[in-house]
Amino acid sequence: SYELTQPPSVSVSPGQTARITCSGDALPKQYAYWYQQKPGQAPVLVIYKDSERPSGIPERFSGSSSGTTVTLTISGVQAEDEADYYCQSADSSGTYPEGVFGGGTKLTVL
Amino acid sequence: QVQLVQSGAEVKKPGASVKVSCKASGYTFTSYYMHWVRQAPGQGLEWMGIINPSGGSTSYAQKFQGRVTMTRDTSTSTVYMELSSLRSEDTAVYYCARDVRYYDSSGYSSFAFDIWGQGTMVTVSS
Q: Does the pLDDT value for residue A61 go beyond 90?
């Protein structure tokens, strides 16, 4: 089955830039999406179509894509950005696309 | 405002079934597909399947084929997810999430989840 691979953890100091990667063989052909999840809360969509930002999401969140890797970048990290981040795409190898999530990356703000 | 409100926590014994509801409001219920996603304690997100609230058609992740049933009631704008033959590994928070579609330049579509329910904790324990 199709897999998306993320680093388990990333740590940065406040004000620095955090980069979280997600790798998958189908990413050159499929859009990727990013979600932020804080403890005890439901996930929130922060990036769609690789690099677009939904309304209400701060400008410090951005996304990019290169080959089989997509990257979520958080510029000027704030303490409130500490959370788990998940990438998501789809496995289209079957009759109907199935949703696929990366394993998640815990962002720690030092 | 657009929101999804799920039913309360459940405790079930191994082998039993559980049915979780998700009531939509603030938008046209039949215009958006709905997904179910679960998250075991301390683990990541896992996609379970999708239902079209308009016609009721469904598609399930291979892992859950034969054990999961998704239905809907258009009169109450509610979708349901029933999981049978429960085992301890099914202990998780179950989320409903509204589908949002995006299209690339060739017309190929992909989906994401723009609105999520608050989650329903299902505990399977003897």
A: yes
